[in-house]
Amino acid sequence: MNAPRLIVGLGNPTDQHAHDRHNAGFWFIDALLRHYPGQMRPDAKFLGDVGEVRIGTQVVRLLKPMTYMNRSGQSVGALARFYRLEPADILVAYDELDLMPGSARLKLGGSSTHNGLRDITAHLGTPRYWRLRLGIGHPRSLNLNKSVVDFVLGKPSQSDQQLIDQATDRSVDHLPILMRDGWEIATQQLHGADPAMQQAKAARKGSPEAKPTDSL
């Protein structure tokens, strides 16, 4: 499959939400722009902030929907229709409750309870677009006595923010691989660089089951 022609970062506008976990997709676009020359500008036609950057030999459009999270699909759908983009040309970066802070995974399609993704799926007419899942953890897994709504609309701890930032930067670092070598190789390398997966792999190697038994 081809490299993405559009990268979308999901979040909520206004300074009130700038530091919310729910804005991890916006943080990804910000990190990308720190690595590559470019800037975002408001575009009423697409209900969001738009821009473009060159990654390797390819120019990629960027989008931050300014519709608030639950209506992200209005913005993504408008831009996709205007530029005649196929869903598989689109990569959407967002906050993932099912991954711990520090993890980042690529995925094509699938269902989701994330309101931003659900609206994008409705407007594109298919879930077959790419996702960059940036782990923020779940209040239950982090032992926090909070509702999911309060959690995603809250600020991460300093240590969790550092882990999220590291995963975000690591994802940006893998974009040239994606543009040059495609989704499969980029996915393998990004997932292989995930600290959680590295720890699990090391644990498997060190387990008694993984060691050969002595001959009697």
* CATH top-level class: Alpha Beta
For CATH, the homologous superfamily is named as Peptidyl-tRNA hydrolase
Shape annotation: globular
Q: Please give the alpha-carbon distance between the first and last residues.
A: 52 Å
Number of helices: 8
- CATH architecture name: 3-Layer(aba) Sandwich
Relative helix content: 25-40%
How many strands appear in the DSSP assignment? Answer: 7
Taking all residues together, what is the mean pLDDT?
Answer: 93
- Report the uncertain regions: 209-216
Largest sheet entry: 7 strands, mixed
**C-alpha Rg (nearest Å):** 18 Å
Strand percentage, roughly?
15-25%
The CATH topology annotation reads as Rossmann fold
Class of secondary structure makeup: alpha/beta
Biased composition (Basic and acidic residues): 206-216
Main location: cytoplasm
Binding site for tRNA: 17, 68, 70, 115
Function: Hydrolyzes ribosome-free peptidyl-tRNAs (with 1 or more amino acids incorporated), which drop off the ribosome during protein synthesis, or as a result of ribosome stalling.
